[in-house]
Amino acid sequence: MSRLENKVYGAKEGRIWEVKTPDEDIIYRIAKIFDVSRLAARILANRNFHDLDEIRGFLSPDLTALSDPMGMVDIDKAARRVIDACTKDEKIFVYADYDVDGATGAACLYLFLKELFPYLQIYIHQNDRTRDGYGLKMEYMRFAEKSGYSLIVTVDTGISNHDEVEKARDLGVDVVITDHHTVVGALPDAYAVLNPKRKDCRFRFEDLAGVGVVFALICAIRKILREKGFFREKTEPQLTKFLDLVALGTVADMAPLKGDNRIFVKNGLRQIRGNPRPGILALIDVSGIKQGHVTEGDLAYRIGPRLNAAGRIGDSSLSSAILIEPSFDRALDLARILSSENRKRQMEEDKIFKDARRLIEKKNLHNERIIVVGSKKWHIGVVGIVASKIVETYSKPALVFTFEGSDAKGSGRSKSPFDILRILNQCSHLMKRFGGHTHAAGIMMRRDRFDDFSEAIQDAARNLYEEEEIIPVIDVDAEVELSSMSAQLLEELEALSPFGIGNPEPTFLSRNLRVVDFSVRNRGMVTMGVVQDGAKYEVLAFKMGELQHMVLDRIDLLYTPKMSVFRGRSEMRLLARDLRLL
């Protein structure tokens, strides 16, 4: 691989550009066998497939290739317990996380069970992020028992809640955990624990989102009911109708878009473009998206944030309520409320990010291995987004906290190769609880331990990573001339979608481009024209407003080509990933 260091502030400070150099013989074979251009073949070769069958599966993500849900530990036991509850008129309490993954998973389970058992008493609960925080709470275990619920099914939560599960059991309430977060230590003593990351789990694909675990559960429930003859007198439900929910939750939770997740999202997007449920259609409407052209980017950056706004600064229950709402008109009312909440979230986020940057610059925190900031003025619902913006701005991992009474609650974000959960494990003695994924985590500790934690986390980062190891790397698929961009190439790239974590959008490098028609628009978006040997394209550069203070004549540009439609006309534009001034 060829590495090019980029240390120009105003684009992306301190990033490394790494141009991938796959074997030319492999590129030739892929191009010949799959009848694609050498450039598309190079991108496929860069995705580290081990054989041609993997590439075939990647290019044709068929539902028949999904992992067998019965391979998940405890799934037969969990499914039979849910069936028992449904057939014996028990009440089911669905305890879901407050984010999009939790909302879509809860809606998926609710709608599936209500279709089969219309009179089932089933209730969805989502924590209030500010009041309750993350995870199961004792008060809701007691509430479930007092309200006559004999079964709690968790969605996207519960894997670290030993005491709460024990309390429910003591109260005579069974708990079935469905979760996908990393398992730390022993499992809770629940009736059943569904988590593909369990060390004893034989399930083929461990990177499911929470909604993906729920989908495996409903697959198992349908299979067992079929074997029992349940559908001799009833119509068997087609589970493909739930793929819009699975796709939305998977993308919004930034689960890797490979394996089962790729199949979910590819097929789920097809359903959303064709016949989405009322709640998703309403969200498409208020987001200003053309339904027939919804992309994974729309799910991640336009629909997902509106649903997440409910859990961040509003009423978290709205995010599941809109997804189970059968009336489009009522769903549209909810979607407008969520859009309003999202605008409030954006304003709060901007204010906190400016405060955090002032604090970082004042204390020179950007010189540390990991940036740790906190304030009692910051809203807990948006500190995770602010942490992500700090990572983007300073190319360093970040932990952002808010101080509430005697507690410090925060969120951490990082980029490959920095494993934030690994670092937190080194400081577990200073925290009340923590959890999450490789690049995203939630933390809670006593406020009086914050300073000790800040020092300890720096020591842990220094011990585990050399300074150059934490510099984010931008993978470049190929160095090309600007003239190689074409409509045919875009068609080939579309076959590689959906893009996201685990399957990044193709990124190209073109050198020594002449800049023309430079302008800055609102929210720091830059537009410019770039020219090379007669080829000219418009470039869109988001969050690079600082470039207005620099003289741009010639640049090296990292970009992804995009087709946009304006007033009925299709036009290719280049979405800037990074650039270097020459």
Description:
It is a single chain. With 582 residues, the chain is an alpha/beta fold. It has three domains: 126 residues, OB fold (Dihydrolipoamide Acetyltransferase, E2P), CATH 2.40.50; 275 residues, inorganic pyrophosphatase (n-terminal core); 109 residues, Diaminopimelate Epimerase, Chain A, domain 1 (Roll), CATH 3.10.310. The chain is 40% helix and 21% strand. The strands form four sheets. It has a five-stranded parallel β-sheet, sandwiched between helices. The two termini are 22 Å apart. About 1% of the residues have low confidence.
> What about the largest sheet?
5 strands, parallel
User: How far apart, in Å, are the first and last alpha carbons?
Assistant: 22 Å
Question: How much helicity do the residues have?
Answer: 25-40%
Which range does the strand content fall in?
A: 15-25%
Regarding CATH, which class of the largest domain? Alpha Beta
Identify low-pLDDT runs. 5-11
Main-sheet strand order equals 4-3-5-6-7
Helix vs. strand class: alpha/beta
Query: Based on DSSP secondary structure assignment, what is the total number of beta strands?
Result: 19
Q: Overall pLDDT, averaged?
A: 91
Choose one word for the global shape: globular
The CATH topology of the largest domain is inorganic pyrophosphatase (n-terminal core)
| CATH architecture level-2 label of the largest domain | Alpha-Beta Complex
